[in-house]
Amino acid sequence: MGDTRPTSPFHARNISAEGVARLAAALDAQDVNDGVRRLRAWAHAALAARPGERAIDIGSGTGSQTRQLAAAVAPRGEALGIEPNPGLRAVAGQRAAEAGSAAGFVDGDALTLPVPDSSVDVVWCERVLQHLLEPEKAVAEIARVLRPGGRVALLDTDWATTILHPGDPETVAGLTSGALSAAADPYSGRKLVGRLTAAGLVIDDRGSQALLQDHTSVAWPLIRMLGESAVRRDLITEAQRDRLYADLTEASAQGALHMSVTMFGAVAHRPE
Q: CB under 8 Å to 10, separation ≥6 — which residues?
């Protein structure tokens, strides 16, 4: 994919072979998040993939959604996962084979989809646009490959909706600002509708889910990563960081912790 996603840990150039297992594990953890599952269920229902249709999954990762699309379009349809990371493609292919799924996986770039014009009935694209420097081009590609009447589901995180409680508001703001630097476009979730309409597609439905962390335990790897980053950037002091860590620890012991980010979805179609 060249330099279209240079800031993303999902980019093939930014992950070593030994890191594929860790990335797959992170994607697996997202798969079982209640909020992710609810938003996906809504999006699949709105897309309504049917037997005999052709579907693609852009940025297919471990292939969980490609396999679901393959089941929906079976037995005469086709579901193709497009993924630039060779390690994830291998994982996806192996899992599909083990599940007896007809889902296929190919190398591909969201900005230059390896699919002919007007040849796809259903497009799934989840948490990809936030990693792109030119997301509008990716949506234009989706519009190009859709047949008249074809449908697309875009799902993406909006990192500016990150909420962390309790803690001093100034300290929390410094900490959560690190989440905004984790993506090429941290505001992608709120832009989905505008990007689809700008590409000439018609909005059919919109949805959202707050992705909640466990209220009884602190997600320490993520919190520490954000905390150390905030200290290095002089957004907070070490004393502020340590006080926040203590507040979060106490809240988790009381079952009163709140940490969340919101993911949005939009379903649209290409006019006949």
A: 23, 59, 61, 85, 131
Q: How far apart are CA 72 and CA 70, in angstroms?
A: 5
* DSSP string across 46-57: HH---TT-EEEE
- Give CB contacts under 8 A, 24+ apart, made by 218-223: 218/248, 218/249, 218/252, 218/257, 218/259, 219/259, 223/175, 223/248
Structural domains of the chain in order of their starting residue, each with its CATH number: 12-157+183-208+264-269 (3.40.50.150)
- The confidence score (pLDDT) of residue 18 equals 64
Helix (H) or strand (E) holding 161: strand 146-165
pLDDT of 19 reads 79
Three-state DSSP at 147 gives strand
Integer Cα distance of 110 and 128 in angstroms: 8
DSSP strand pairing (120-126 vs 146-165): parallel
User: How far is 63 from 45, CA to CA, in rounded Å?
Assistant: 19
5-54 confidence digits (pLDDT tens)? 444 444 445 456 567 888 898 899 889 999 999 999 999 999 999 999 99
92 three-class SS = helix
